[in-house]
């Protein structure tokens, strides 16, 4: 009845003839059943990507063992990060991730029995990209809500800073009604109190006035001077456009914009520039149009014109109408033979006499530009009788 300790070296020795022989017996044990599978890990609180998890599987008794590793219900296989060693009795996971939380078990099998360890879970602390969502541009009076998120384990605690000063705690920060002073950098600090790590993200908020530009409602200018209009914009528009009477301003060799379109220059300004101007600023999220500016160009009077009959009979009345292109409209004076006879654009003669024959002069005067301009017209007066006689002759 061989026992395991009967294994060993046996020697036979003879005297006649002299002989000696050695034989080694190995008493093979039957496979021992497995009992008490124990799983150990050298640490269970790990920091993602920084730490290595090491599991060791052992049994109290059992022989001819083979090992299988389970993560939850799926079998663990070797890979770059996952190594099996010691005849598969140790499992090493380098650079643990949050997907390595387990629970892990080891299963031990031999020909006659099997056993499975208690599970061990890992606690993998991690921090990921912190993000802030909100609009980038907002108008005064509006309220902007910033939301900060950070995927981390345990959840992060959040603090908010505006231009470097602490303003609030919590993942959501709501500004009050915005003023132009609310323009600036908003920072969320996500703090993971277990890893002791902070992650910070900032967002620029551009605050623009309700009206991006207030142009003067009325600008009066003198023709032939140069003149510049400016679009006053808070913030940083990506483009600015100028409108005249609701269509794009036509740029020519008198009309220029600066490189960023903030100013529109007229050199010289002309009375054809009269109109309603607006600037429109646009960025990726919005566009705003300024108030309207009426550009009024004072000029003239240009050469006046007299309308009316050049020839008339005695006793008739003649009406002369003087007009001149001018801003503001001109005032008019009438002169006949060097004496003032009337004011106003319309001059009606009295009943004509032969003495009414002569040169009538209209002076147009612009009391804003201080200029005047003169035109004359010859009136030929013929006697009624002369006219009949003339008719008789015919
Ligand atoms: C676990 O084992 C690894 C590798 O030997 C070692 O770097 C690490 O410090 C150990 N962790 C603990 C908590 O003992
Ligand atoms: C993780 O590792 C990085 C560098 O490898 C180190 O800077 C950081 O402090 C480590 N974090 C922890 C919590 O150990
Ligand atoms: C370790 O396990 C792998 C399967 O994961 C197997 O192919 C290999 O033969 C095992 N090695 C030992 C020594 O049991
Ligand atoms: C483990 O042993 C049980 C009986 O004790 C058996 O029903 C089961 O199939 C075995 N499992 C494996 C994987 O051999
Ligand atoms: C860490 O923060 C969590 C909430 O995120 C809190 O429940 C826990 O008490 C904090 N732990 C410490 C040590 O401050
Ligand atoms: C992380 O932020 C918290 C709260 O703002 C602060 O108290 C702590 O000092 C910061 N820690 C580090 C390491 O920056
Ligand atoms: C300036 O205005 C012109 C014409 O309206 C336009 O084509 C151009 O894109 C504008 N540039 C900028 C910087 O706003
Ligand atoms: C501007 O252009 C007009 C024609 O559009 C031309 O008559 C004038 O001479 C130009 N003036 C200058 C300063 O180039
Ligand atoms: C622009 O509008 C004004 C009236 O607001 C008008 O008198 C002027 O003729 C217009 N100019 C053009 C070029 O259409
Ligand atoms: C300006 O923005 C409004 C919406 O706010 C949009 O309907 C309009 O088309 C935009 N205009 C231009 C010229 O981009
Ligand atoms: C210019 O004349 C207008 C009438 O055409 C008058 O209403 C205005 O007061 C005058 N302005 C000056 C400065 O004289
Ligand atoms: C017209 O202008 C000239 C010079 O500019 C001035 O001498 C004259 O008195 C003016 N006439 C009137 C009617 O205003």
TrEMBL record:
InterPro entries registered for this protein in UniProt: Ig-like_dom, Ig-like_dom_sf, Ig-like_fold, Ig_I-set, Ig_sub, Ig_sub2, IgSF_CEA-related
The Ig-like domain, residue ranges: 33-111, 119-206, 223-290, 304-380
This protein's UniProt keywords: Disulfide bond, Glycoprotein, Immunoglobulin domain, Signal
PROSITE patterns listed in its UniProt record: IG_LIKE
Gene3D superfamilies on file: Immunoglobulins
Matching PANTHER family: CARCINOEMBRYONIC ANTIGEN-RELATED CELL ADHESION MOLECULE 5-RELATED, CARCINOEMBRYONIC ANTIGEN-RELATED CELL ADHESION MOLECULE 8
Name of protein: Ig-like domain-containing protein
Taxonomic path: Eukaryota, Metazoa, Chordata, Craniata, Vertebrata
